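Request: How about a record?
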Amino acid sequence: MLEKTTIDQAYTLIQPHIRQTPIIHISAADILGDRNDNNRICLKLEQLQYAGCFKTRGAFYALLSQDKLPKLVAAASGGNHGAAVAYAAQKLNIPCDIFVPSSAPKPKVDRIKDFGANIVAEGENFAAALKNCEQHIAKTDAFSIHAYNDMATITGQATLALEWLSQIKDLDTIIIAVGGGGLIAGMSSYIKMVSDIKVVSVETSNSASMYHAIINDKPVKITPSGMAADSLGASIAGDNCFTLAKSNVDEFICVEDEDVLEAQRLLWKDYRTIAEPGGAAAFAALSSGVYETSPNEKIGILVCGGNTKFDNFI
């Protein structure tokens, strides 16, 4: 369903347009306290990606992998996907329409505006914005980039794992936040192609579409809510995403909103790293103790998005 050569080629294709994001090593004792069994921890700072999130990878690959660039692009988004598509479209000189729910956070809507996209803010949630976008595409024949379930999107997100594993060679575990599932699907597929690294999926308990899909052995609809719903709040996991995650992810866990808020505070206080709620969820799994470490475990944590207001968590 997804091949290593395809991911390798995708990275080569998008590499001139993306930023190789840094890794920092942090003290396990600072995070784990008495739970520290000589663990080692690193953070992959993908919130420093262009447009502030990992989704820029998938947006560029979806566009650049076409035989020719489309004349118009459209996407529905809770915020980050819209910013990424708008950024890629701007850089490739393609007109762009982004459909967001009326509840989309202002910092994310502002980011989309920064990149010159036309914004349509209608509907109460992502599902309503997606329906509006699909109707628009049917009328205009705009090129569609789904936020997570298209294989091109999944392939683009997989390049993050390729890049990470080229930067560091000895991880035991990688912890990744999950929304609709495009990131975990792509990253876990690549990780398992080249290593035996354990992959851990993290969601907030009230926006856990993948967790419920795994429990029910199929994607099921949920009603996302809570502080991370704008980025992790897919009402249903993508079917392609579910299939790949089920095959390649080792552990599925949930954290609470208060865990995420505390993780945001710790990231800023100790590492001067700003992360939005969804971007801090993987770190929350470790800092809260929900993810149980093993002695001497070498852990990589993805900080995947930074599109938030600074005063939201200080």
User: Anything to note?
Assistant: The first strand starts at residue 23 and ends at 26. Residues 13 and 64 are 7 Å apart (CA to CA). The radius of gyration is 18 Å. The mean pLDDT is 92.
